[in-house]
Write a structure and sequence with these properties.
8 helices; single chain; 7 strands; alpha+beta; Arc Repressor Mutant, subunit A; Phosphorylase Kinase, domain 1
């Protein structure tokens, strides 16, 4: 099998830049081709390392003070008091409008980032030869495994007669916060369920349902926990699993 045409699309796939049909075709290929799945996982891990490194720098107080003094040293032009007053009022309105726009853009960018991260985690799980660290269909085995590994607890539902199957779980990270990732199957579809402390991750309050690349996504808050479901299953399946998880708590 020739892998190059598929591998050539991986970066655009991970950035969510492929057309829908191409995304779906590559999704299917990654499920069937271990070599391309391994390469996808390698690139995902590299991207996460680069993103993590990029967050490590923040300007110190010395640099901020230097910038402030540089701005203060610039001469100001002289205006009449009337024009100065008009300019001041306009500046206030422009600053307020600009601040609202900046907040909206920042919120949208943060939400897009989180959607991309969740899609990456889901793809990484599907592409991995060992998608879970605790392999069990028994909720009484999976739940205790997380004790001491994440800073919260959660309950898992009884699945008998629901059509869903619990595959297992692993620890995942979002916004550098540890959480639980649970893998479920229904028919031939795989769903990743992520659980995090709501206060540990920001910018997700407006995310309830939608799409992350070619995957459907559901999100909700329950108590102090934030849940995410992501997968290629139908909307009814996602809602069904959400109801089961909600009733378990």
């Amino acid at each position: 099998m020739t892998h190059e045409p598929w591998i050539a699309q991986l970066d655009r796939y991970l950035d969510g830049e492929l057309e829908l049909a191409a995304m779906q075709s590559l999704d299917q290929h990654l499920r069937e081709c271990p070599a391309c799945a391994a390469e996808s996982l390698r690139r995902l891990q590299w991207r996460r390392m680069v993103q993590s490194a990029g967050k490590r720098f923040s300007p110190d107080s010395v640099l901020r003070e230097r910038v402030r003094k540089s701005m203060a040293a610039k001469p100001l032009r002289q205006f009449s008091w009337r024009w100065s007053a008009v300019a001041a009022v306009m500046a206030v309105f422009l600053a307020a409008a600009g601040w609202v726009i900046v907040l909206q853009q920042k919120r949208a960018a943060q939400q897009n980032y989180i959607l991309g991260e969740l899609a990456d985690l889901h793809v990484g799980t599907m592409a991995s030869a060992s998608p879970v660290d605790v392999v069990s269909t028994d909720r009484h085995t999976v739940k205790p495994w997380f004790e001491g590994k994440i800073p919260f607890s959660f309950n898992l539902p009884e699945l008998q007669g629901s059509g869903f199957e619990l595959v297992g779980g692993r620890v995942s990270y979002l916004e550098q916060a540890p959480g639980a990732e649970l893998v479920y199957r229904i028919r031939k579809h795989q769903i990743s369920v992520f659980i995090f402390q709501d206060r540990a991750i920001g910018g997700v309050s407006a995310i309830e349902s939608g799409n992350a690349r070619t995957f459907r996504l559901e999100s909700w808050k329950q108590g102090e926990l934030r849940y995410f479901e992501i997968g290629d299953a139908g909307a009814e399946d996602l809602r069904g699993l959400r109801e089961l998880l909600s009733r378990a708590n």
